[in-house]
Amino acid sequence: MSDEWIVACDFASVAANDVVRCDVADATYAVIKLSDGRCSVIDGLCTHGKAHLAEGFVDGTTIECPKHNGRFDALTGEPVASPVRVATTVYETRVNVDKIEFRKN
Ligand code: FES
């Protein structure tokens, strides 16, 4: 665990209602931007079958997995549609000037 903020990507590189993949060291994350500009960084692999969530899509405040269409709440990580049953990790996320940053504390 670290208190350091990690740059995920440029704020402008993620469209509203979209998600992009971010790889840092040996971990992968999904960086989500909601329609109102709020951003969320979550674990990149689905808790159900390890699909890359960045290949899914954002619908309202949820992100849908591309593999079996399970859904997570993008802000809390809670599962909201089956077959997902285990929450994903949501990291503390901020927009710092023009960067989306997160930390793992
Ligand atoms: S791998 Fe994501 S819902 Fe099955």
What would you say this structure looks like, in words?
This protein has a single domain, classed as Rieske Iron-sulfur Protein (3-layer Sandwich). The strands form two sheets. The chain has a six-stranded antiparallel beta sheet, with no helix packed on it. Strands 5-6-7-8 form a four-stranded antiparallel beta sheet, with no helix packed on it. The chain has strands spanning 6-10, 18-24, 27-33, 39-43, 57-59, 62-64, 71-73, 79-81, 90-96, 99-103. The protein is built from no helices and ten strands. The chain starts with 5 loop residues before the first strand and ends with a strand. The model has no long low-confidence stretch (mean pLDDT 96). It is mainly β and 105 residues long. A hairpin with a 5-residue loop joins strand 3 (27-33) and strand 4 (39-43). It binds FE2/S2 (inorganic) cluster.
Descriptive tags:
mainly beta, 105 residues, six-stranded antiparallel beta sheet, four-stranded antiparallel beta sheet, binds FE2/S2 (inorganic) cluster, Rieske Iron-sulfur Protein, 0% helix
